[in-house]
Specification:
The protein is mainly α. The chain has 5 helices and 2 strands, in the order ββααααα. It has a single domain, classed as Arc Repressor Mutant, subunit A, CATH 1.10.10.370.
Length: about 110
């Protein structure tokens, strides 16, 4: 399976997660977000960029609690809630934010708990 973005064909799994996160760029994120029926707002980009930055350092996807702590520091405590995260990504952090960030499918979608 795969997606085509700007003339490049990228391999994905059956759910649309990239198989190689190193191939990700903003155009790919926009493409995946459109497939998810999401507009990439400033707030969504903040989450996606945090996931990418965390992955670059730790070579893993941050759990939701790690993300929420960072959101609290950057956006304020009122935005650092699971409810707000679900407003941004209605099908879940693992299912949508991580997919848009170009991650492989998280092994445990406990990221959403």
């Amino acid at each position: 399976m795969g997606i085509e973005v700007n003339g490049k064909v990228l391999e994905t799994d059956e759910e649309g997660f990239l198989l190689d996160p190193a191939l990700w760029d903003r155009a790919i994120a926009e493409h995946i977000a459109r497939d998810e029926s999401l507009e990439m707002t400033h707030q969504r980009w903040e989450v996606v960029n945090f996931v990418r930055e965390y992955y670059e350092v730790h070579h893993s996807v941050p759990e939701a609690r790690v993300l929420l702590k960072a959101m609290g520091e950057k956006m304020g405590k009122d935005k650092a809630t699971r409810k707000y995260l679900y407003q941004l990504f209605p099908y879940g952090y693992g299912q949508q934010a991580c997919k848009i960030a170009g991650m492989t499918k998280p092994r445990k979608l406990m990221l959403d708990v």
